[in-house]
Design a protein that fits this description.
Largest sheet of chain B: none
CATH topology of the largest domain in chain A: Rossmann fold
Number of strands of chain B: 0
Structural class of chain B: mainly alpha
Distance between the termini of chain B: 17 Å
Strand content of chain A: 15-25%
Oligomer: heterodimer
Number of helices of chain B: 14
Order of helices and strands of chain A: HEHEHEHEEHEHEHEHEEHEEHEEEEE
Helix content of chain B: over 70%
Structural class of chain A: alpha/beta
Mean pLDDT of chain A: 90
CATH class of the largest domain in chain A: Alpha Beta
Low-confidence stretches of chain A: 1-9, 22-30, 33-37
Shape of chain B: globular
Low-confidence stretches of chain B: 1-5
Order of helices and strands of chain B: HHHHHHHHHHHHHH
Distance between the termini of chain A: 70 Å
Number of helices of chain A: 10
Strand order of the largest sheet of chain A: 12-10-9-8-6-7-17
Largest interface: A-B, 48 and 48 residues
Helix content of chain A: 25-40%
């Protein structure tokens, strides 16, 4: 077996040489590292940052932070809501010295963010969408926006634009956040056209391009002429509707470039306003509140610019509603409101303002919406 | 080592040298690819090394990511011994996690160890039965196992979504439908002195057990005979049906256990987070390891390292996340391409045996 051993030794020698060369390279090569900037800020996205949707909206916010002086922005996309996000956050903290993190996906919060926040008390964790409560670590915080206000404006515009009186909504899951958008859209549409209906299709998950395309096609096949959606990336819905000649209202980010013929308006996040504000607060030594919520008034959301398809009448109505929402004297969920089974869900005389906790537990579809929550 | 001695030395050297060559080739190609994007290849390699294996933190990051892959890879590797191509580990993983969470909720209040054992049993059983179904469909109904295992993944995910959004939903989980939490008392701890959960140790142990089963028992030998020539196996009277069902059950039990660990060590509840693609990466790992249970261990660690270093590549070099997918794809292609070299590599010194 002498030859065998010889081979082994040769192999060993080769391996050692390779390893040595690797180590030498690692030592010699000037590694790009996060330079000593004043504040290192990490942004973590659950999907691709150019998805024309949820993640792009956050990336636009990160880009606004990048323009500020004395900050170093770190970004990582396609980070799943598993232990991988813990490791990503930890790596940003340990290897790149990040002291302010924006894990932007809802599913990152529990247990991932909570676990890391307890482990790194000096790092600030700003989470999008979660509901921070007193029992959570003080260095964790959550922010979110009442984007349903913009969906309401989209609904008003859609109500004027539709010729068939039939609107369509492609939605991911029947959870409160989504139901709220569908309902405000429908309530808006019926202000403009009391006979309007909104057909909703739930695809079952946040990113299912094939199902989203099928749903959009089936909506248009039913004679629906305005389509909107609430999925992570509205790209497929918007492009499919455009190809079929339907009008669209965007969501998450500005989708006007995707539908030059049929785009009306849309509901957008305004993270490029909020994030630099947060960063300025931190740099000035201040503290961001642990629970931040707001809508048009707080400039956390904004409507997309109207396209030329939007009539003067529709503009006036929507602008009027927007002005009142911004001023804070407009309630979307004002009783009496019936669900689509005929039950009263908000009684006459009851007004549920945006901060009303009952809205966070929404489990119904309002009158005029065709579809079921389960 | 009787098995090793039975093989010519050249075959063993080949079995290690060829994948290593393929890996180096893939890294070189990836370096060229990144050079086109304006990234210096050596800096790239150094960062990849730093992110995956350069420090204790990086190693832990790598091992945590490798842990579920060790088990999901077995879902493809074990049936491969029978000549079957099963790619449905994702479904067994998801259902294993769901079953484990259900068991924990049902037994709430019992002793932690009892609950954890019950969770493991539930995960093993759910995953095992799911993939055994694939084996049964193949054996008794002639349904192609590759297609059926893949389609069963979608059914498993639909089942998970249905249950966590309906009967098993915690009313408190408003915007992310989940089962109720299993409770901190029942969570699996980390391996002492590390941040790596026990799932990694389970994975290594199960891979070793699978190796012993396949290469050192009559059962495993029979399975390999079936894989070599099913007709011959039938002629010599091997119980093919039992072998298929047994192997596919074990193949599903492994990712089922990984799903249980994911719930018991990481998430603390079952929800859509379970659908993270560990099952699919496991297919890649199994093929790279040439379906050898022991080969899975280094390959899973390598894959863990690549994914652990992906973050640094994004942050420091501005590469998109898809870059790590390009690397994974390149590795896979090079490895498949290198298969043609087997038995053709000119190693004159080795021809003695």
């Amino acid at each position: 077996m002498a030859a065998d051993r010889m081979i082994t030794r040769r192999h060993l020698l080769k391996t050692t040489m390779l390893a040595g060369a690797g180590a030498a390279l690692a030592g010699v090569a000037p590694l790009r590292s996060a330079a000593a900037a004043t504040l290192s800020i990490g942004f973590i996205y659950v999907g691709p940052r150019d998805d024309f949707g949820y993640n792009q909206a956050h990336a636009v916010g990160a880009a606004a932070v990048k323009k500020m002086a004395d900050v170093k922005v770190l970004e990582e996309e396609n980070v799943p809501e598993t232990i991988a996000v813990q490791k990503t956050m930890e790596s940003m903290i340990q290897l790149d010295g990040a002291s302010l993190l924006f894990p932007t996906s809802f599913g990152y919060y529990s247990p991932q963010v909570l676990k890391l926040a307890a482990q790194f008390p000096k790092v600030r964790f700003e989470h999008c969408g979660g509901l921070w409560s007193e029992k959570d670590p003080k260095n964790a915080a959550s922010y979110f926006g009442y984007i349903d206000e913009c969906c309401h404006l989209s609904g008003i515009v859609a109500g004027y634009a539709t010729k068939s009186g039939k609107l369509g909504f492609v939605a991911a899951k029947p959870i409160p956040q989504v139901l709220r958008n569908i309902n405000t859209f429908a309530l808006g549409a019926r202000l403009a056209n009391p006979k309007a209906t909104v057909q909703v299709i739930f695809t079952g998950d946040w990113s299912l391009p094939t199902k989203e395309a099928e749903a959009t096609n089936s909506l248009v096949d039913q004679g629906i002429d305005v389509v909107t959606c609430h999925v992570d990336s509205p790209k497929v819905v918007i492009e499919t509707a455009e190809r079929r000649g339907a009008m669209v209202c965007g969501y998450h980010a500005n989708q006007a470039p995707l539908a030059p013929k049929g785009f009306l308006t849309g509901a957008e996040w305004n993270w490029e306003e909020l994030y630099p504000g947060f960063v300025r607060t931190v740099m000035a030594g201040g503290t961001i509140p642990n629970l931040v919520r707001g809508g048009l008034k707080e400039k956390i959301v904004k409507p997309s610019a109207y396209s030329s398809l939007v009539s003067a009448e529709a503009r006036k109505h929507a602008d009027d509603a927007k002005a009142k929402l911004t001023a804070g004297d407009y309630v979307i969920f004002k009783g009496p409101i019936l669900d689509n089974k005929g039950n009263t869900v908000i009684g006459a005389g009851t007004s549920r303002g945006q901060t009303d906790i009952a809205l966070e537990e929404m489990n119904y579809l309002v009158e005029g919406v065709i579809g079921a929550t389960s | 080592m009787p098995v090793l001695a039975a093989k010519p030395a050249g075959a063993i050297v080949e079995a290690i040298l060829i994948p290593a060559l393929a890996l180096v080739t893939a890294l070189l190609l990836f370096g060229v690819f990144c050079a086109f994007r304006g990234v210096a290849p050596f800096e790239l390699y150094a960062l990849m090394f730093q992110g995956g294996f350069g420090s204790w933190f990086s190693w832990q990051n790598t091992l945590i990511r490798a842990a579920p892959l060790l088990l999901t890879a077995l879902c493809t590797a074990l049936p491969a011994q029978l000549g079957m191509v099963v790619i449905g580990g994702e479904g067994a993983f998801v259902l294993g996690g769901l079953a484990a969470a259900s068991a924990a909720i049902a037994l709430h209040g019992a002793a932690p160890l009892a609950v954890q054992l019950a969770m493991a049993a539930a995960g093993l059983l759910a995953g095992g039965l799911w993939i055994a179904m694939v084996g049964a469909l193949r054996q008794y109904r002639g349904v192609n196992e590759t297609i059926s295992s893949l389609l069963l993944v979608y059914i498993a995910i639909a089942l998970l979504n249905h249950l966590v959004e309906g009967p098993l939903r915690d009313p408190g989980s408003l915007n992310k439908p989940s089962t109720p939490p299993i409770g901190d008392a029942y969570m699996l701890a980390n391996i002492p002195g590390t941040e790596v959960h026990w799932g990694f140790a389970f994975g290594v142990v199960v891979c070793v057990l699978a190796y012993v089963l396949i290469h050192h028992t009559v059962f495993g030998f029979s399975a390999r005979v079936v894989g070599g020539n099913a007709r011959a196996a039938k002629v010599v009277g091997l119980p093919i049906g039992r072998l298929v069902l047994g192997i596919t059950f074990l193949a599903g039990a492994a990712p089922g256990l990984a799903g249980m660990v994911e719930v018991a060590a990481v998430d603390g509840q079952a929800n859509g987070t379970l659908v993270a693609g560990y099952g699919y990466t496991g297919i890649l790992v199994s093929f790279l390891a040439r379906h050898h249970p022991l080969g899975i261990i280094p390959v899973a660690i390598l894959m863990g390292g690549i994914s652990a270093s992906g973050g640094l590549l994004q942050r420091r070099l501005g590469l998109p996340d898809a870059a790590t997918l390009v690397l994974q794809g390149t590795v896979f292609m090079c490895l498949l391409g290198s298969e043609v070299l087997h038995g053709r590599l000119s190693l004159p010194r080795l021809q003695r045996a």
